Amino acid sequence: MVEPPQPPPAPAPAKVYYDGCPGCAMDKKKETRKGVPYKELIFVGIISFASALPITSLFPFLYFMIRDLHVAQREEDIGFYAGFLGASYMIGRGLASVFWGIVADRIGRKPVMAFSVFSVIVFNTLFGLSVKYWMAIATRFLLGALNGFLAPVKAYSIEVCQPEQQALGISIVNTAWGMGVIIGPAIGGYLAQPIKQYPHLFHDNSVFGRFPYLLPCICISFFATLVFISCAWLPETLHKHKGLERAVEMVEGSTTQESREPPKKSLLKNWPLMSAIITYSVFSLHDTAYVEIFSLWTVSSRKYGGLSFSSKDVGQVLTVAGASLLLYQLLAYRWVNKILGPIHSTQVSSALSIPIIAAYPFMTYLSGIRLDMPLYIAAMLKSVFAITRVTGTSLLQNNAVPQEQRGAANGIATTTMSLAKAFAPAGAGIIFSWAQKRQHAMFFPGDHMVFLVLNLTEVIGLVLTFKPFLAVPQQYK
């Protein structure tokens, strides 16, 4: 029996683009554009890099800054005070991130990103002028609270890309952010205490004699100033329609593009989003604690289980790690994501980080080239694995919500991540200070205990990437 011919499918309704709406302009541009949106992603990368630089730039000189502020009574107590100073930025960011995410959903991504870069210019400079412990804490807290950049930029990087390019967009943000987090300490290490490091260029009676940690802050603020000016050419992506709320109306049936999707549920009840955020926050806690512990461990004396590095030595290691990160993201990550996907790549990179961390305390028995080779290789691999995890979980978050909830969703993610990162430096500083006092303990003496705790947080994050905890967004099933 011959089946009757099937009627042809109904044509897809045509989109209506509203004049003066930046979101419509971006959607129209995406439809006509072929290839990767290099211009927008370059802007995203530069802004991400500038906003990330001050976060960890203080770590190489944090030990010496606390000493010079004369707040610690003993050398063993420096790590305690350093932890709270390192945490102040993340506490500020954690308290304000949801607010900035909501603002970005209301007025647009561009103004929030531009204001965040401006806050770097002001408060990072003031931090370099700190002569009291309370002033350093206050400026770092305000820098974090007013730098609401991370939530809108992740939404922006998704919105300028076609679906098949979203992994690249998120990876650009995380690569630039990761490079800023890594190269920031390099800037701090090379430029802090210039009177001591470069006596032939700087004199004791100069401004850098009174403020020995101002030079790296000024350099970062100068770069942020250039980036702030360039924000004038940054296109907006948020839909802004008169009489409608960020919806692209369809001609046939007067049906909006968004109305074809199920009604939006509460973000807190969106388990694919929340499970990815929790996993992301655990990894963020680990990564921040790792950066602080690595910096404190390398500059501490060998009698306390460290490497007796100078801040310049630490900066050099982190610079090499940052360069490897750039090469990995440009040449390899897209293939890793294409082959493994965001979930499996996160799991593999987390598992491979564990033996690297476990090897660090045994490097104190090495010296010279026998120390440099494994230390540099371990730092490079750890950076590559960290950025793979962050990119994978970020992709899961941003694909679990529609556009009009993306800023708020990233705001929640930034808040929980910032609170984790606020706890990480304080907790790492306390554990590091305690570990230095138990060099001859029988159970994981000295810094062996510090790296054991680091590995425990890595294992927790790894477990959270498996079912039933992690709920996968529909498009990855």
Provide a short characterization of the protein structure.
67% of the residues lie in helices and 0% in strands. The chain is built from 17 helices and no strands.
Key traits:
67% helix; 477 residues; globular; mainly alpha
Architecture overview:
The structure is a single chain. The chain is an all-alpha fold and 477 residues long. Helices cover 67% and strands 0% of the residues. The chain has 17 helices and no strands. α2 runs antiparallel to α11, α3 packs across α12 and α8 packs antiparallel against α11. The radius of gyration is 24 Å and the shape is globular. It starts with 21 loop residues before the first helix and ends in a 14-residue tail after the last helix. It is a multi-pass membrane protein. This is Major facilitator superfamily (MFS) profile domain-containing protein.
Helix vs. strand class: mainly alpha
From the spread of the alpha carbons, the general shape counts as globular
**Strand residue content:** under 5%
Strands, count: 0
CA radius of gyration: 24 Å
Q: Which oligomerization state do the chains in this entry correspond to?
A: single chain
Low-confidence stretches: 244-261
Strand and helix order: HHHHHHHHHHHHHHHHH
**What is the rounded distance between the termini?**
38 Å
Main location: membrane
InterPro entries: MFS (IPR011701), MFS_dom (IPR020846), MFS_trans_sf (IPR036259)
Subcellular location: Membrane
Membrane topology: Multi-pass membrane protein
